[in-house]
């Protein structure tokens, strides 16, 4: 049974139909599941203006009052978690169990930041002269704009919107054209929770460039947040700084290494590699993109992984027990096919998989590749599919060198029983997040973000709230 859902945009507390609409597809079947408004520059400006009008009133509310609304929103999300999970699975293809996990993960940001709203502390600075007193206060930055991706259609919204709203900001959101329905369901629950009109706005569109241009160049928008490709993020970031010098947060591409040292617990490493590599069919920015295995255990690890991977159940995400759903669109499946074909032609071997899956046009068989070299694209570029390339290394220095040989630095993983090595490698790896002996680490309390070309700023944790606050220094002079 399909979940019920909203299919109109949400601007200034009103549901907007729009004369022009675009289709939303189920990636498992390519069936049309909805048509939503295809809005443009004019509607985006209208949404920004609404957020600007709503900002003073929302910012003036006591932090506790904002927290109460956010808590009500969280409670509504958790009470509606089954419908939300089915909707995430229906429009994004994610397996139902993962979708339910994402819905709870997304809700957790509302709970966490509602609580953190009451702790946006300033400070008193010891004076340099008896005639002055120094303090700092933190104030909301203003109207915020956000562009979110399809692979986490709920969590990537709440990870941006929750800290913004907790800080006292208002927000205009452009969800991806592949998965707009989850964003609209979130707006529906926010309305029920008591969000004032204009505080949270959702602009649906198939013309991302037109909407993004307005968001980047508007002098009413003071903060712009984007999750997506590095190529697009660079352009949007430049447009924001070049037009109005607004604050920018960018969560961009990754090329995460997962290193397995010879002293690792092999069963734990295999389990961690599967969790990290094959979650959402490999379509996450923190997926283990390449797996580096020490020479002494390379064959043993390869065989264990190749034995476990074919047991993953492939099929439409909405079906019970499915662990690997479809890729998001035809372009995605073609990219994975190309990258695997290039690797095989260059000497790699598919221990399992290496081809499309008979479940449907956008399904790819979970794949393990051995004899992968550093120059292959499956090592140098983000795959975004269920393909695990295994690269051999001999020393710790070599492993760290391979791991860091990329312009990206979002997440890294490694498995070892040596606590000294754990500290050493964690400090040497160039990435914003490092996970040791664990294939999954994301939650609401930790700072999420990357080094190098993987982005700017942090989301989650106390750092995420600071992104939406301006620090103001106040000098009290004239003391006798």
UniProtKB/TrEMBL annotation:
It is an enzyme of class 1 (oxidoreductase). Keywords: Oxidoreductase. Gene3D superfamilies: Aldehyde Dehydrogenase, Chain A, domain 1 (3.40.605.10), Aldehyde Dehydrogenase, Chain A, domain 2 (3.40.309.10). Its EC number is 1.2.1.16. GO terms for biological process: gamma-aminobutyric acid catabolic process. Pfam families: Aldedh (PF00171). InterPro entries: Ald_DH/histidinol_DH (IPR016161), Ald_DH_C (IPR016163), Ald_DH_CS_CYS (IPR016160), Ald_DH_CS_GLU (IPR029510), Ald_DH_N (IPR016162), Aldehyde_DH_dom (IPR015590), Aldehyde_DH_Superfamily (IPR050740), Succ_semiAld_DH (IPR010102). Residues 16-474 form the Aldehyde dehydrogenase domain. The active site is at residue 251. Belongs to the aldehyde dehydrogenase family. NCBIfam families: SSADH. This is NAD-dependent succinate-semialdehyde dehydrogenase. It comes from Candidatus Viadribacter manganicus. The gene is gabD.
